[in-house]
Prior knowledge:
The complex is a heterodimer of chains A (486) and B (780). Chain A has 486 residues and is of the alpha/beta class. Chain A has helices at 11-21, 28-36, 39-42, 84-88, 96-99, 138-142, 160-169, 179-187, 248-269, 273-295, 302-308, 318-330, 349-373, 444-454; strands at 64-70, 123-126, 131-134, 147-154, 197-203, 228-229, 335-341, 380-385, 389-390, 407-408, 412-418, 425-427, 429-430, 437-439, 442-443, 464-466, 469-471. In chain A, α9 (248-269) packs antiparallel against α10 and α12 (318-330) packs parallel to α13. Chain B has 780 residues and is mainly α. Chain B has helices at 2-23, 44-55, 57-60, 76-80, 101-106, 126-137, 168-179, 190-202, 208-214, 223-232, 234-247, 265-276, 281-290, 299-304, 321-341, 360-369, 382-387, 401-404, 466-473, 481-494, 515-527, 532-540, 553-558, 575-586, 606-610, 646-649, 669-677, 679-695, 699-711, 717-736, 738-745, 757-771, and strands at residues 396-399, 419-422, 432-435, 443-447, 571-572, 778-779. Chain B is globular, with a radius of gyration of 30 Å. At the A-B interface, α9 and α10 of A face α27, α30, α31 and α32 of B.
Amino acid sequence: MEAEQPQGENPLKVNRRHFFSQMSVGIGSLALGSLLIPDLFKGSSPEIADQVLGIPHFAPKAKRVIYLFQAGAPSQLETFDYKPTLLKRMGEDLPESIRNGQRLTGMTSEQESFPLMPSASKFNQHGNSGAWVSELFPHTAKIADELCIIRSMHTEAINHDPAITFFQTGSQISGRPSMGSWMSYGLGSENKNLPSFVVLTSRGKGNSQGLYSKLWSSGFLDSKHQGVLLRSGKDPVLYLNDPEGISRSDKRHLLDHVSSLNKIHHIETGDDEIESRIAQYEMAYRMQMSVPDVMDISKEPEDIIKLYGEDCQVPGTYAANALQARRLAENGVRFIQLYHQGWDQHGNLPNEMAGQAMDVDQASAALVMDLKQRGMLEDTLVIWGGEFGRTNYCQGKFDPKNFGRDHHPRAFSIWMAGGGIKNGITYGETDEFGYNIIKNPVHINDFHATLLHTMGLDHEKLVYKYQGRRFRLTDVAGNIVKDLLA
Amino acid sequence: MKQFFLIATIISLLTVVLYGIKKGVFRSDADGMVDIRMPEVVDYNFHIKPILSDNCYTCHGPDANKRKAGLRLDLQEVAFAELPETPGQYAIVAGKPHKSAIFERITSDDPATVMPPPDSKRSLKPYEKELIKKWISQGGKFQKHWAFQVPKKSELPLVTDTAWAQNEIDLFVLHKLEEHNLTPSRRASKEALARRLSLDLTGLPPGPLQLQKWGADLGAVPLDSIIEDLLAAPAYGERMTQSWLDVARYADSHGYQDDSYRTMWPWRDWVIHAFNENLPYDEFLTWQLAGDLLPDATKEQVLATGFNRNHPITQEGGVIQEEYRTTYVTDRTNTLGKGILGITLECARCHDHKYDAISQKEYYQMFSFFNQVDEKGLQMDAVQAANQKFYADPPYMTITEAETRSVLSFVNLEKGKELNVMVMNDSAPRPTFLLNRGNYDEPADTVRAGTPSKIFPFAEDLPRNRLGLAQWVTSKENPLTARVFVNKVWGMLFGRGLVETAEDFGVQGSLPTHPELLDWLAADFMEHGWDIKYLLTKIVHSATYQQRSELSPALNKADPENIYLARAPRFRMSGEMIRDYVLATSGLLNREIGGPSVKPYQPPGLWEETNAGGNRGILTTYVPDVGDKLYRRSLYTFWKRTLPPASMTIFDAPTRDFCEVRRQKTNTPLQALALQNDVQMLEAARVLAQSTVAAIPDTASGVGEIFRRILVRQPGGDELRVLEEYYMDTQDHFRKDTEAAEKLLAVGDFKGADTDPSKTAALMLTAQVIYNLDETITKE
């Protein structure tokens, strides 16, 4: 565990020292960084000049984030929020005093009653911390002492699109930059051959909701901060592969001639944008080597394959993406965003939850352990969770073997591990119905503020002025949840 | 002797140091502001308001709820009145900075009293404090915000160099240049101008036929006739439409969740038609805002109102209808603000505007105009919609085949088909409430339809409906509409508007670089009946527009961003324009106009990987078109909002989730990859090579020929040498490996001429070299 930051010392000084001493390739890469991220030293507009982009505001605990987003919203009642009362009062109507005016989606608002439905799975306590984890997640349970489980997340939206947009961008309305874009904007890139924000998607067998590219959009930030979708096929980055009949040396030969002609034109026009174009072509050429290299898991040893599960050898699965995430993290990618679809259990929940859990449980836990054994968990923050919770009452016909849960914004559970976050704790509490938070609520804005803090960024200082207004990931709210910080 | 040297050295060192100080060598960046000249007369709008707005308005501005100490600095009468909380003191005392509380506070050293307060994380620079001091000394006069004053033609400025100007625009530009000791660049070559004009006015490079018509010697063709030809070409309407689609957030899908198909393309065909017919801009707006309310509205006028139905519509199960209906009305209101009035109205949705004098009440008064639509929101989910071919949510109009032969002749509808297009109506009159914090379920007072009074009052005799709104928007008294459009057109041609923040003419937006020119153009545009082609003609006839785009090192230093326009701009073309350019120069371009959107090549799997699984709706799998639909202009490319075409977004196209008025112009490795490896690009290079080899068996002149085809100029000696050498090397390589040549030539669907593989493959790669040049994708 790292020591508390000494009081009284200018945090930026600490950070600069760290920054320069920890740079793996020295000052040269700083110059390169500014080439890759031109606004590193330029700023988006003059008034932001006092904010040095590309350098954290204070010493960061985490250098990168792996976000295992469970799209569709897994139920807290079948994952981490153990509520025996629901079993005792099974079938009873949700008391009005508990619902307390909560608006419902059109899928259950017409229901005549809201019968309480107990968890479809059993819970046990695990680790020294005694964290409650559902039996559907045996591997996650084993690493309970690495986790910080938050049972008191809450949000505002009750439908998927606005809720997931809110989680990713801090606003329910499209158009704001995604978390990963803010990190890329604030901290720049650590690897000159890879993008700083990448996205990997996979789909489970459960009821799914589509994904949209706006979720990894850079909004009004420069589009180089946009998330780059890494795909499982032979073209992991769009247009990465050269056409048939072209070898690497053919490509080099071609690019050399493009460069020669561009240089002639640079002299004629005097426009330095051409130099920058030449540099981008060179980076593209390097990416053609570096991306397939990172994506190639054939050299991963047997024990690692075992750790993540056999599925990790099947491209496009969650397990494969989790392993990929570790490789990207090792290669200095700042923000690695996974989306796993299939968590929208309006019906057939007992079955579908079990299937979804099977898809992600082992690989999620494997990722945390793998990072740990490489000494990377200290400065890598792993997050697991969806966009909202699910109702404690049954959607549709009351049948404990086959029921559904509707969307619930007031309380849900996620976990974090590593980079600057306390481990072995369970934070926040809901009432005995698992409906309302009774202790330590964490709003999405608070979550974002805390996340930025672990990365060394002050959520009130990381601003971008657009349309006359200073925008933040946390908009006008957000408090760092200090209790969570290691 | 030694001593002498020492003294001499010291003296010369001192001289150097003194000289350095004089020249500012030792000045740090922090006080770089000293370089800015203190103006003789401090202007409230241009010097003071931006400082007050950015630093003070949050607590002392238009927002009544956040105002502190009862002080507002956006209104003269309050700023000059006795401070309510400190009797005997005044924020501003005309002529007396040291008696003015604001000057005392901004210069205070005490963290408890200094303004802005430390926790606001804002602070004034020394130069700004000096400006405020001087302004107060000069009387501290307030003025109406510049953009809220009706634009008027000021007197044309006097210039020293009287020979350069070709029209009024140049006098304004030259005046500024002379002020800054800059001189304009020479006129661009006729070849460069033909390419520039063609790209600006039609979005395409000049084609071989066009060049043929203009004659081998471009120099002999009057520029006037080139400009006339281009403006008369149908491609002109397509070019203008392309940029309007971003404003109108046009798409072929609903934009949420399963993101189902919608049929809005006939509206897009109307826009092309309207531009080509040169419908005056005031009518162009009126029809789109309120065509359905015009007396005896024609079908065409009703179709135009599709503009306000282009917003995303959710199909997500279980949504609360009223929440989303409110979102749609909000979107229409914001689009009017951002796209047409250049005002960030949306800032007043949840609270009074913090910077501009728009109250929350006024926001909902504007909202009210768009709140009367008989719309239901979600009608069915993507699966039902697909099964029932339900591609337009009510209200909609039906277009029949018969109509496409008469009143709607410009709608490119397939024979025997009819379809529905979403349009506006006012058939569901409902009261409008101010919504607390913008929340649909927190209605407060009812409001009456109206417009922000500070912009310009809504005349009493206007109907309080969208038609009245349209008349207010297009009134010659409206200070914003013409300015915003003229600025948009300027930005299209110059890469940056005279007001850089084309979407924000409010107090937080950028100030115009040439305010008198902007006003002159806006007034002139209105005087000439809002005639868009007239406006374009005026601008492209200016010497300013016709300059060379090259930068000399001196100019690069003096004005790196080309604010003063001592040269023409150079900037990367949009993704659409690049693709069209490649299709056109390769000879593949299919010039059909309008019709349902098409699906050109796209990397496989993109839609499939992100959809919800299964077959929810008809947009879950991407099936590329075949045949000549692959080669349509890019404005016809199918726009699925949740996953827009990658080849466009990589080049900074917006998602079309909401109104956007300007695009970034980034330069990224992903763009380099797309240009090298997109099938569309490779196929074009291949087809161009095949047709060239077939026509010109002599390979050396083939290289020169494709260079001219793509870049519309003669290659320089060095350039030709580089390319010919590359061609020869590559041909040798493919002669040894014809299998590789054949593999390479297999790219794309188009069946080209049957030519010698190694020759053709070598020429194809030579074409690829040229297609990947900075110059090719740059308008210069």
